[in-house]
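Researcher: Please translate sequence to structure tokens.
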Amino acid sequence: ARIFENTSLMNFRITDAQVHVAGDFAWVICVENITSVVDTNVSEFRVLTTNMFRKQYDRWLMVHHHGSPLYGG
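Model: Translation complete:
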């Protein structure tokens, strides 16, 4: 929630998504291309993200999220 509290706009565009499923567990590795606006300052950055899911009662629930900033290229 703290990431969003000072922004007037935050846009996520997901690229390079890879989905893996093993039984009741799944994980998605992707790049989050993020545009953020704070006051009048626009920032663009990329985050390499891993999201882990567990299937419970026929629903996929996220149990873990991790993101690391990508620099360059």
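Researcher: Any highlights?
Model: The radius of gyration is 15 Å.
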